């Protein structure tokens, strides 16, 4: 039997916030009701009390305080918990001491995941009693509930704690340097970059910066020179709804249309087809010309000026107009627009707060349809992160040499969205091999900083996660088989298959018939563990390297099985990427240990 | 039947299993005393059981409370053998230094008997002269011993033993306790002129002396040369050490949890070989003219079908085989619990 979805009433005059709530909470399985004024909210809540009210502090017709008081004073709605949403910097809690139904505060801007988590958290704590069991309103349980960490004061405290934590972490760098040995560059970072002055300035500056960022009110929406027919269905400020969140929401909803972003320096257009960005452009043709690798010499100045004017007016890239006028070869136009689009999107994400609007469209402009190519937001994010040179930001995510990362759920599918550098691939390979940060540094031959940075950015884009906090989010590996390449003169396969089938969580055994079948079988079966007999005459070292360099399967636990003590070969096998070297007759518990890892 | 008594809790024990247990006790030469709601069926003075046998229903993962009370309060530190109602990954699992043994389905008389015997066999002394001994006609002798972490059985058919005099050599392998929980077994390799019993004792005592491993090994090698093979379990290192100076010696390790399940551990380079030890390992050294088990029998898996029942089952099998044997032969079996 499935229960009815929990009902949430959102009262906010901002269309952006209402849309955001509708998309985020709707996707999480809640039934959303929306009201844009206090009166409308009161009427809806009293007529059919929801499970939770999300209430804006400032409404056009009345204060949120008055709405909450009205609901508290009505028997029908008094027991409904209220979460107050506010962009104000003040701690509003004292105002509501007399209104125990206000159980939480959330500061704007908030992310979809933040609000989804908060709603789930409040609903889990406040079980709405049935009509028969409902206590009188004066005894509503909300007063006893502890507030969560979303008020400004708490955010500020959290920020301070964060930087205290950072300060402590910086102090450990020399210790890490010692752990890495004399030749490691960590001492360099400690001496040259993390100077006391820099730390003091950084820490002193960040708190007011964060305070300002959290306390600021959104600027009013403005219309830029670029526009189009039809009225926007969603508009707002990127300070309230950051561009990446907006893009992800639209992506999740599979929408087609265009986003217009207004920043003081330029207006940017992002075209989406079924949720995917297919072209990004802006109204600054000079920027295109500065970054262009196209040979534009010899073009009639009039044609060039006309194309530039068109871009300024409509955002249509000047290269398109030039190609249409047969002044530029059209065959490479897609690639040119893709490169410029990537830069335009990156610049839009990095630009400060601005206004946006979104218009649905059945059809996109002809040049977008003809020459647009999917732009990966993930790739853009990764490229942004590559440019981060703030050690503190990196270390916030990678704070120990003993950390072990693991690949994120759906890693193989996620991988398709990225163009990785050689270093990122190398680090990813070693992550898949269950190495600690220290081991990745030792085995990758990269500098510690580069390894830390790779782990930081790969983690930020969701390709990897720390093993300690991946937890339940990572699906169990059970179900993926164990593969074996073994001549089986002594009878390993049959007892291994039997023992695997008798586990509490049984897995199957897949045979790799010949060394040539190794990669195809692994790509097809995606085994958790691959057992290779290294005494059977084939090049096990090369085989291991092939597996490790094939990113989709490089996380397989590799087990070398030898007929006798391998001696020095054991070191070579380990360097080639084997997780374990076992000597016959090895114990099933050695395989079990790798399955459980 | 010996004087040893095994307490059998009848709660949760169905009739077919009760019959199997009765037969197994007879096979293991111990007396079953059934314990029902009315108390134990025993009136001949103090009971002093050496083992408690009980059933564990399918799906249960904890020792039933009445059994736990019996084994901790009524009869303190009494070992328990739980007959499980379902198959286990490994047919027999020994926990807490042998205090608790689980035996999975399918249950047979031989398997239950083997577990009873690993629990009730007498402790071995450093000199290896105690344990349950069986003497048959035709110079066939068998002996079982146990320590906290191991059970050992030795057997020999030695028709010429009487001709060699009381102080002479003996084909029966020697087993000695090594430290608190280790064990070493020595098997004579020369059937016509086996190593003197004193030499075997000297070698065994050298291993038991607590010297560092390399020195013990050197002493053993100097004492027995090529006249004996040895299998030696050290709980401190968690390792087996095998000494097989003759390459034709059949020295095998069997375990349902090993891959492959059976492995010839005779040294191929030098005389020594070591490997990590694990609970459930059964080590077999068989020698003779002809040997009681041929190399082909080991390789074909015939021997290991018997070994699935544990070390005692293998000892019974050898006992039956050597009873009708014409030549001389000896074997050592050590099982880690």
Structure in words:
Chain A is α/β, with parallel strands linked by helices and 597 residues long. Chain A folds into 5 domains: 143 residues, Response regulator (Rossmann fold, 3-Layer(aba) Sandwich); 60 residues, no CATH class; 141 residues, no CATH class; 93 residues, Arc Repressor Mutant, subunit A; 115 residues, Rossmann fold (3-Layer(aba) Sandwich). In chain A, the strands form 4 sheets. In chain A, strands 2-1-3-4-5 form a 5-stranded parallel sheet, with helices on both faces. In chain A, strands 6-10-7-8-9 form a 5-stranded antiparallel sheet. Chain B has 337 residues and is α+β, with helices and mostly antiparallel strands. Chain B has 2 domains: 116 residues, Rossmann fold, CATH 3.40.50; 205 residues, Phosphatase 2c, domain 1 (4-Layer Sandwich). Helix content of chain B is 25%, strand content 32%. Chain B is built from 8 helices and 20 strands. Chain B has a 7-stranded mixed sheet, with helices on both faces. In chain B, a hairpin with a 4-residue loop joins β8 and β9. About 2% of the residues of chain B have low confidence. The chains are: A alpha/beta (597), B alpha+beta (337).
């Amino acid at each position: 039997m499935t229960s009815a979805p929990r009902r949430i009433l959102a009262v906010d005059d901002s269309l952006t916030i209402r849309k955001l709530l509708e998309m985020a909470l709707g996707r999480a399985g809640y039934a959303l009701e929306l009201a844009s004024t206090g009166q409308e909210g009161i009427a809806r809540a009293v007529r059919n009390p929801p499970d939770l009210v999300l209430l804006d502090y400032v409404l056009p017709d009345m204060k949120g305080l008055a709405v909450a008081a009205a609901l508290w004073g009505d028997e029908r709605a008094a027991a409904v918990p209220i979460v107050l949403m506010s962009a104000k910097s003040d701690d509003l809690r004292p105002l509501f001491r007399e209104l125990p139904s206000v159980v939480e505060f959330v500061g704007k801007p908030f992310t979809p995941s933040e609000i989804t988590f908060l709603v789930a958290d409040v609903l889990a704590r406040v079980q709405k009693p049935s009509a028969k069991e409902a206590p009188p309103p004066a005894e509503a349980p909300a007063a006893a509930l502890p507030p969560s960490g979303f008020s400004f004061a708490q955010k500020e405290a959290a920020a301070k704690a964060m930087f205290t934590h950072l300060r402590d972490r910086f102090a450990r760098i020399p210790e890490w340097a010692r752990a890495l040995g004399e030749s490691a560059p960590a001492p360099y970072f400690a001496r040259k970059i993390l100077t006391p002055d820099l730390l003091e300035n950084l820490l002193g500056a960040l708190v007011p910066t964060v305070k300002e960022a959290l306390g600021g009110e959104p600027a009013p929406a403005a219309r830029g020179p670029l526009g189009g027919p039809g009225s926007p269905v969603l508009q707002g400020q990127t300070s309230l709804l950051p561009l990446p969140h907006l893009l992800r929401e639209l992506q999740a909803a599979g929408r087609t249309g265009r986003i217009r972003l207004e920043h003081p320096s330029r207006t940017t257009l992002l075209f989406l087809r079924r949720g995917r960005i297919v072209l990004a452009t802006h109204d600054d043709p000079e920027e295109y010309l500065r970054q262009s690798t196209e040979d534009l010499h010899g073009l009639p100045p009039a044609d060039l000026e006309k194309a530039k004017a068109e871009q300024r007016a409509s955002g249509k890239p000047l290269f398109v107009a030039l190609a249409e006028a047969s002044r530029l070869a059209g065959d490479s136009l897609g690639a040119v627009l893709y490169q410029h689009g990537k830069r335009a999107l990156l610049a839009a994400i990095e630009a400060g707060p601005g206004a946006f609007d979104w218009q649905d469209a059945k059809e996109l402009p002809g040049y977008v349809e003809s020459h647009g190519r999917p732009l990966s937001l993930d790739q853009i994010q990764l490229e942004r992160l590559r440019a981060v040179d703030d050690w503190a930001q990196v270390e916030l995510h990678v704070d120990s040499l003993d950390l072990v990362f693991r690949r994120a759920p759906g890693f193989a599918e996620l991988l398709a969205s990225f163009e990785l550098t050689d270093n990122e691939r190398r680090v990813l390979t070693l992550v898949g091999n269950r190495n600690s940060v220290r081991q990745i540094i030792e085995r990758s031959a990269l500098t510690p900083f580069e390894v830390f940075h790779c782990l930081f950015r790969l983690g930020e884009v969701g390709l990897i996660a720390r093993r300690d906090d991946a937890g339940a989010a990572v699906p169990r590996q059970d179900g993926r088989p164990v593969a074996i390449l073994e001549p089986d003169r002594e009878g390993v396969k049959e007892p291994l298959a039997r023992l695997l089938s008798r586990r509490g969580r049984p897995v199957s055994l897949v045979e790799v018939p010949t060394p040539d079948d190794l990669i195809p079988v692994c790509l097809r079966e995606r085994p958790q563990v691959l057992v290779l007999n290294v005494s059977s005459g084939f090049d096990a070292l090369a085989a291991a390297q092939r597996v490790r360099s094939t990113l989709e399967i490089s996380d397989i636990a590799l087990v070398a099985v030898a007929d006798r003590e391998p001696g020095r070969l054991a070191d070579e096998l380990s360097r080639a990427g084997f997780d374990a070297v076992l000597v016959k007759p090895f114990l099933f518990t050695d395989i079990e240990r790798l399955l459980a890892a | 039947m010996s004087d040893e008594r095994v307490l059998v809790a009848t709660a949760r024990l169905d009739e077919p299993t009760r019959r199997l247990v009765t037969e197994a006790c007879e096979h293991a030469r111990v007396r079953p005393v059934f314990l029902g709601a009315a108390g134990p069926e025993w009136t001949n003075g103090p009971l002093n059981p050496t083992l408690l046998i009980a059933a564990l229903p399918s799906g249960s993962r904890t020792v039933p409370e009445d059994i736990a009370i019996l084994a901790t309060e009524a009869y303190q530190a009494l070992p328990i053998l739980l007959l499980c109602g379902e198959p286990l990954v490994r047919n027999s699992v020994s926990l807490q230094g042998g205090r608790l043994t689980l035996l999975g389905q399918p249950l047979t008389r031989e398997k239950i008997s083997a577990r009873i015997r690993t629990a009730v066999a007498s402790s071995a002394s450093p000199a290896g002269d105690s344990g349950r001994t069986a003497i048959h006609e035709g110079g066939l002798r068998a002996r079982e011993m146990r320590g906290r972490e191991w059970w050992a059985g030795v057997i020999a058919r030695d028709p010429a033993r009487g001709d060699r005099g009381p102080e002479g050599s003996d084909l029966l392998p020697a087993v000695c306790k090594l430290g608190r929980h280790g064990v070493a077994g020595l098997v004579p390799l020369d059937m016509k002129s086996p190593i003197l019993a004193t030499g075997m004792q000297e070698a065994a005592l050298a291993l038991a002396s607590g010297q560092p491993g390399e020195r013990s090994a050197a002493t053993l090698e100097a004492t027995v040369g090529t006249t004996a093979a040895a299998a030696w379990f050290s709980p401190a290192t968690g390792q087996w050490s095998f000494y097989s100076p003759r390459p034709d010696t059949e020295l095998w390790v069997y375990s349902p949890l090993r891959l492959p399940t059976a492995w010839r551990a005779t040294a191929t380079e030098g005389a020594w070989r070591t490997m990590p030890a694990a609970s459930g390992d059964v080590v077999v050294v068989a020698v003779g003219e002809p040997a009681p088990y041929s190399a082909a029998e080991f390789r074909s898996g015939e021997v290991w079908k018997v070994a699935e029942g544990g070390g005692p089952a293998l000892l019974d099998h050898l006992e039956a085989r050597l009873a009708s044997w014409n030549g001389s032969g000896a074997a050592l079996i050590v099982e880690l619990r």
